[in-house]
Amino acid sequence: xxxxxxxxxxxxxxxxxxxxxxxxxxxxxxxxxxxxxxxxxxxxxxxxxxxxxxxxxxxxxxxxxxxxxxxxxxxxxxxxxxxxxxxxxxxxxxxxxxxxxxxxxxxxxxxxxxxxxxxxxxxxxxxxxxxxxxxxxxxxxxxxxxxxxxxxxxxxxxxxxxxxxxxxxxxxxxxxxx
Length: 178
Hints:
The protein is α+β, with helices and mostly antiparallel strands. It has helices spanning 14-18, 35-40, 72-87, 91-101, 106-115, 127-136, 154-165, and strands at 7-13, 24-28, 53-60, 118-122, 168-170, 173-177. Strands 2-1-3 form a three-stranded antiparallel β-sheet. A three-stranded antiparallel β-sheet has the order 4-6-5.
């Protein structure tokens, strides 16, 4: 079983911060997060002296970057997408797509993952591994007699596949997106 994706942010009361006091708290970003309640708990509320917040820190296990200006609406949208990826058990594929695109491509990685526009091979980390996988799984297009397997250049098959298809090796395997 794979670990669920998560995102936590540190919400900070902006007014208190400008007064020299750090008043804030860690909040787990989920579809159940009550942002009004979380903001009130750090003294941020409408029609008070302290109406503004900002994000001073964040942590995630999938490379997503948020900044101090990320809105609560954006966090809600991210939470919905994280929940969908977790519910569909696509954490590894999503992380691999995100890694291949660059960690600033959350939305694009999400769309590719949910739409199934990728090919992922787990535990493939070299051209030779990729070539071996392609031949062993019958993806080479022909069945190769056992006595000829000693003459196959698996590394060349993997390299050519990777280069021709624009794939790349990532932490957990090999990924191609289309």
